[in-house]
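Exam review. A common question shows you a sequence with its C-alpha cells and asks you to describe the fold in words. Practice with the pair below. Do the first one on your own.
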Amino acid sequence: MSSFSHFLQTCDSTFPVGSFAHSFGLEGWLSAQANPGPKDLERFIDTAVGGLLRQVDFPVLLGTHQAVLSQDPEMLRTWDDLAVA
C-alpha cells in the first residue's frame, strides 16, 4: 500500500480524531489499483462523488437557496428534513 493511501486512511473517520470524513471508498479503490493515473482518479471521482452531488447535494442546495430567497420557512424546514434523512 502506498504512503498516500496510508495518509488517506489516517484521515478516515475510523480514527478517533474528532471529525468526520467520507472518502466514498477512495482508500479501497487506491489499494486495488496497480498504477492509477490522473484520468483513473478523475473517473473515480466522477463516478463515486459526481453522481451523489448531482442527484442529492446540488438539488438540496438549490431547494434550500430557493426557500431562503422566497423567505419560505416551511419549505426550508422540508429541505432540511430531506437533507438529514
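Now try the second one, then compare your answer with the model answer below.
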Amino acid sequence: MDELRAQGVGNISRMHEEQFPDWFLGRKFPSKEAALLKPHPDTTEEQWKELCDLFTSEAFMKRSEQNKKNRSKLTVNHAAGSRSFQRTRACMKNQESGNINPAELYKRIIQTKMGFGPRKEREKFMTAVKPPPSSTLTTQSSDLQHQLAKARDEIEAMRAAREKDLQEFAKKQAEMEATLRDHREEQRVEQERIRLEQEEA
C-alpha cells in the first residue's frame, strides 16, 4: 500500500476500501489473470497489478469474509451516509408522526430532549392549547368573509378613484396640448409678422 501511495494513486486507502474491490469483486473475474486483463480506468497497469495481488491475498479474503458475516448480523441497514443512527431514527420518527399541532410538537421535543418529560406547568399549558371548537371556526369563517367583502369594497372604491384621477389627468393633458398648440400658432404668426416687417423695411 505504501508503494501505491508513493506512486500517486491519491486516496488509495479510501479507493482500496470502496471503489476497487467493487470493480474487482463485482465483475467476478474467474482468475487473477482475467482481472489483470481489464484494469480499473483510474489506475495504471502497475497499480492494478498491486491491487489484484492485494485482493487475492489470503489476509484480504479472510477479512472480507469476516466483514460479510458481521454485516449479515446487522438488523438495521445504515444507508444514510454520514448521518448517525440516532439522527436517522429521529428523522424516521418525524416522518411517522406526520402533521402535529404546535403544542404536541413542543411536548415531544421537550420530552425527548435530555431524556425527561416537561414540568407540570408546561404540561398544563400544553394540554390547555387545543384547536378551537367548530362553532368558533364557523364564527371565524363568517368574520373572514365579512372582512373579505369589506376589502373588496375598498378595492373597488380605490379603483374608481384611480379611474377618475386618470380621466382628470387625460383632460388636463388635452387642455395643455391645446394651449401649447395655440401658443405655437401665436409664435408662428408673430415670427411671420416680424419677417414681413423686415422685408418691407
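Model answer, second protein: The chain has three domains: 2-73, 85-128, 140-201. The radius of gyration is 43 Å. Full marks require stating both points clearly.
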